Amino acid sequence: MKTRHLLHFLPAFAFTCASADTIELKDGTTYEGTILKQEGEDYIVEIQVTKTIRDERRIPRADVARIVAERKDETDFEELSKLTPAPDLLTEDEYDTRIARVEQFLRKHPTSQRKAEANSILNELASEREVIVKGGIKFDGKLVSASQRNPEAYALDARIAAAKVQRHGDAGEILPALREWSALEKEFLGSSAYLETIPYAVKLMRSHLTTVTNALNGFDARVRERESGLSRMASSDRTRSKEAIDDELAAYQRRVDAEKAAGIKWLSLDPYVKQPLEDTRRMLESEIRRLENLQETSLPKIEAAYAQAWAAVTKEGATQQEIDSAMSQARGTQVPQAYLDILAENAVLPPTHR
Fold first, then answer.
1. Residue 35 DSSP symbol
2. Which of 39, 161, 281, 341 could form a disulfide with 184 if both were Cys (CB 3.0 to 4.6 A apart)?
């Protein structure tokens, strides 16, 4: 028997369903959900009350005014429509994945009434992908081509790095946010984005410090409670539980070792391993003091240096001496090599004269 998907709208409940056929009764009641079977003169309909609770309802066939069949292309397009606008900072491969989904829809539903909209989505994704392939980016919802990016590449990349800190922090992902902060501080110490993000970073650190301090304050009691729980277990259960605890500890240690090897500053923590908690607390206290007392005048002016060098090397009629001088000043101000390369590639003189 063919299964239909239906959703039931009743005053007592609110239901959601990605897509469904619809049963309309003669009294105006509307159902959407899943028809499980026909039993005598009735439909047996399954209703999704919540994500984990389902209910069944018997509907007399004689009460049914009509059944509106689900349109599969509408179902598929509902998900497809979420592909645009594409989020910031997608890679070429991520664009390819989205494009492939649209192309699959068009192959599957060649006569769909949504075909024109699907093609519009496809064209938008393909157009953005072309910009990305050529060295551009999408940031703050706007496409920035390579030619638009280069004049302020250092400042723009710093803002992107700062946005990653904010995105994780706002989502409550403190450890990833602090790791992104470390990347921002390492790569873009001489940017305005770094300075502007310091108060937010301190806020994240204070939040993490509270969590770590609470974990340390409750450490001994937590360990005693676990030991007490183990002691109350039957011998076989206690043995298995201790083995599981040892396995978890070993896995945690492997993860921390890998993080240290990768140069990650903010390590993963385990509520039953005290030393990393203590080390993290000390580091947080030290970092908060350092950032709160940081003097802007002590930082390199890399963002300004890059902008000045760009203006000099791209100036119409610039001489080799002027270009060499601008590049030397940029190096002296600690402009990273990747951005020195951008300056050199865009200097007005032919490559053989650079």
1. E
2. 161
